[in-house]
Amino acid sequence: MAMIDEPLYPIAVLIDELKNDDIQLRLNSIRRLSTIARALGEERTRKELIPFLSENNDDDDEVLLAMAEELGVFIPYVGGLEYANVLLPPLETLCTVEETCVRDKAVESLCRIGSQMREQDVIEHFIPLVKRLAAGEWFTARVSSCGLFHVAYPSAPEALKTELRTIYRQL
């Protein structure tokens, strides 16, 4: 492969494997996300890999579970705490799937990320995520939101704390 094509190779392989009919190939690809992210670099991981994962609607629970687990330790691969918020959208989507173990792992990963985020980022990104999930039409999103309040609440200003308590009571 030519040198000019090499930066595109990891993402191309990932995309091909994630679209493959063979579940084992899809699962192996997800389990290598950190390797792929290192090859892409922080910026391309943020701008290409994470959006791709957000749009990836795999129907296999094993693949979704592996993705939820991998993303929970992905802060270093997106550029550190300053960019941790880019990991929230794919995990938010995983909080709405029907399979309980996938939702639980997504909540666990969100808690891990949220507890490391800067206070302002929690207010700007994490708390709105909790509120969206709590207002979700389906029970899956609302159940998932319950596991996130303990991370969102301590960083919230007093007015937001009152709102979070009200939302939690309504759940």
UniProtKB/TrEMBL annotation:
HEAT repeats lie at residues 10-48, 87-125. One of its GO terms (cellular component) is nucleus. One of its GO terms (molecular function) is protein phosphatase regulator activity. Keywords: Repeat. InterPro entries: ARM-like, ARM-type_fold, HEAT_type_2, PP2A_Regulatory_Subunit_A. Gene3D superfamilies: Leucine-rich Repeat Variant (1.25.10.10). PANTHER family: PROTEIN PHOSPHATASE 2 (FORMERLY 2A), REGULATORY SUBUNIT A, BETA ISOFORM-RELATED, SERINE/THREONINE-PROTEIN PHOSPHATASE PP2A 65 KDA REGULATORY SUBUNIT. This is Condensin complex subunit 1 C-terminal domain-containing protein. It comes from Citrus clementina (Clementine).
